[in-house]
Amino acid sequence: MAAPESGDGNNGAARMVTLISSDNTRFEVEAAAASLSQTLQLTILDGGGGGGDGIPLPNVDSATLSKVLEYCIKHAPAAANGGAPNATAVDRAELERFDNEFVNIDQSVLYSLIMAAHNLEIEGLQSLVAKKVADMIKGKSPMEIRRTLGFPDPTPEEQAEMNAHMLEYGWAYE
Amino acid sequence: MFPYKCSTSRVIRKQPSHTNPRAKGCAADRRKGEPAAEMEDLQNQDDQEPEHPAAAGADVLPADALEEILRRVPPRGLAACRLVCTSWRAAVDSNHLLRADLLPLSVASILIGFAALNVTELFLAPSLSSPVSARLDFLPRAAADDDDDAWTPVRDHCNGLLLLADHVANPATRRWDPLPPTRRPQGAPFLRYDSRLVYDPTMTPHHYEVVRIPTSRPSSVHDGGARALEWPDLASLTNQSELRVWVLDDESLGVGVEASS
C-alpha cells in the first residue's frame, strides 16, 4: 500500500511499529495503520513500539491481530485524510466492498474481533462488527436471536422471565 | 458460537425508558459518562462468579460493545432483544434504546382532507402532553405567499409524517425535507403523478420513502407516453440522505451515528 502523508516529519519513509500478540507473534506494521487504535495511538505518539521493543498485546491472539491489522492497513489512508472528504466514490465503494467482505466470517472470529476492536478502541472496526451483529439480530424472535448467537436454551426460570416481559411492547410482536 | 453468560444477579440500576417519556437527550449524555459505570457492573458481575474465569461460554460481551450492537437494531428488533436474556434487557433499558414513547401506539391526531377544497385540517387528541401544531409555518414559503392561514394541502401521511406538494414534514418535531424534483420522462410533459409516503418508525426510524406513481396518460398516446407509464424507478425517488431527522434528533435517539459519521 502507499505510505500515507502522516505529516509527522519522518522524511517520507513510513514509520513502522511492532505489535506482539498474546501468543508471541510479532507483527510489523506502519504506525499510521496501528494508530487507528486509540489505545495504541498514545504509545506510538510517545515513540513506543519502534526498534526491537514492540508493543505487547496480551489480550489479542495472532489470528485475530492479523485480521485486525488487515482492517487497519486498508483503512489507514482514508483515516489519514481526515475521514477522506476528498475520497472518490470509487475509493468509498471499494472500502465498503472490503468491509462487507471483511465481516463475512465465522461467528467465533467475529466475536474475537468485537473483543479486539473493543480492547484496542478501533472506532471504525467497532462500528463495523456491531453493525454485522445487529444485522444478524434484525427481524428475529428472541429465541431465534439466542440460537443465532449460540446461546444455550433458556432455563425454565429464564423462560418464565421471557414470558413475563413478553407483555411489554406487545405491538412489536404483531 | 458467541461465548455466553447471562447472570440474573445483574443489577438493573436505571429505570426503563418508558417510565421517563420526556427524557430527550439522555442517551447522548450517557454516551459520554456511563460506559465506565457499565464496565464497573461488568467487573462486579465477574467478581461474583470467579469460579469460571476463562471457561468457554463464561464470557460476556463488554457492556459498551453490546450497546454498540443494540443501538443499530430498529425498535421492533429491540423489543425482541429485551427478551433474549436479563443482561440484554438491562442493556436496552438502561441505555434508553427503546423509545416506546415515540412510537405510534395510539391515535394522537386525525387528518381530514377536503379534496374539493384542497385543504386539510388536523384534529389533535386533547390528551397529548405536548400539543402538535397543525401550522406548518416552519416550512419555507414562496415570498408572495404571506397568508398565515394558508394550508399546504397534505397529499399523504404515514405514521406521523406528512407528504406535501414539495416537502415531507413532521409537525411534531417541526422538521422538514424538500422532495427531489420529479423527473418527467421525455415526451410526456403533462404526465401526472400520485405521490405516496411510506414510513415505519418501528423498523426504520430514520428512513422514509416517497413513491410517485404515474396516474394519467398524456393526451396523445404515442411511443414516449407508453414508456412513461412504466413503473417508476423507485431507487431514484428514495431519499437516501435523510437518515437523521424524522422521529427526533440524533442525540436523543442515540442511533444516528451512521448518518453523522
From TrEMBL, chain A:
Record key words, sorted: Ubl conjugation pathway
Q: What is one process in the GO biological process aspect for this record?
A: ubiquitin-dependent protein catabolic process
Q: Which domain of life is it from?
A: Eukaryota
Q: In which pathway does it act?
A: Protein modification; protein ubiquitination
Query: What single Pfam family name could you report for this chain, choosing any that match?
Result: Skp1_POZ
> Which residues constitute the signal peptide according to the record?
none
Q: Which InterPro entries match?
A: SKP1 (IPR016897), SKP1-like (IPR001232), SKP1-like_dim_sf (IPR036296), SKP1/BTB/POZ_sf (IPR011333), Skp1_comp_dimer (IPR016072), Skp1_comp_POZ (IPR016073)
All copies of domain SKP1 component POZ, residue ranges? 16-75
Sequence ranges assigned to domain SKP1 component dimerisation in this UniProt record = 124-163
Would the keyword Cell membrane turn up in this protein's UniProt record? no
Is Transmembrane helix one of the keywords? no
The cross-references to SMART domains, in alphabetical order and at most eight, read:
Skp1 (SM00512)
Which family does the record claim for this protein? Belongs to the SKP1 family.
Subunit (UniProt): Part of a SCF (SKP1-cullin-F-box) protein ligase complex.
Q: What does the record give as the function of this protein? A: Involved in ubiquitination and subsequent proteasomal degradation of target proteins. Together with CUL1, RBX1 and a F-box protein, it forms a SCF E3 ubiquitin ligase complex. The functional specificity of this complex depends on the type of F-box protein. In the SCF complex, it serves as an adapter that links the F-box protein to CUL1.
The molecule here is called: SKP1-like protein
What organism is this sequence from? Eleusine coracana subsp. coracana
Automatic annotation (TrEMBL), chain B:
The membrane-spanning stretches of this chain are none
List every stretch annotated Disordered.
Answer: 1-54
**What SMART domains does the annotation carry?**
FBOX (SM00256)
The annotated regions of Acidic residues compositional bias extend over: 37-49
Outline the extent of the F-box domain: 55-101
* Gene3D superfamilies assigned to the protein according to its UniProt record, in alphabetical order: 1.20.1280.50
Superkingdom of source? Eukaryota
Compositionally biased intervals (Polar residues): 1-10
In terms of PANTHER family, this protein maps to: OS03G0653100 PROTEIN-RELATED, OS03G0669900 PROTEIN
Q: What is this protein called?
A: F-box domain-containing protein
Q: Which organism is it from?
A: Eleusine coracana subsp. coracana
Taxonomic placement: Eukaryota, Viridiplantae, Streptophyta, Embryophyta, Tracheophyta
